[in-house]
Amino acid sequence: MADAGKSAKRSKAPAARQQKRNFFATMSYDVIKAVKQVALEDDTTASEILEEAARDWLERRKYKVPKREPG
């Protein structure tokens, strides 16, 4: 019988093989509120908006960004 107190092991796969990973950042309340509001209006998620913004910023810096995976 498995130990009920133990949690499942996390994958040790390289980041490139995992579709999504958590990334935590501190932002001002006003920015967070606005991003969430726009996400609701656009029927998307705050995560999708922030990923798009990060990709755009990286491209402006001429940093090669891998293509976005569908889904």
Written as H for each helix and E for each strand, in order along the chain, the element string is HH
**Envelope shape:** globular
Provide mean pLDDT, rounded: 82
Structural class: mainly alpha
Provide the helix percentage.
25-40%
Q: Measured on Cα atoms, how large is the radius of gyration?
A: 17 Å
Largest sheet: none
- Contiguous runs where pLDDT drops below 50 for at least 5 residues: none
Distance between the termini: 37 Å
Q: How many extended strands?
A: 0
- Tally the helices: 2
Strand content is under 5%
Task: Explain the layout of strands and helices.
Layout: H1 29-41, H2 46-60
Helix pairs in contact: 1-2
Explain what you see.
By secondary structure, the protein is mostly helical. The protein is built from two helices and no strands. The mean pLDDT is 82.
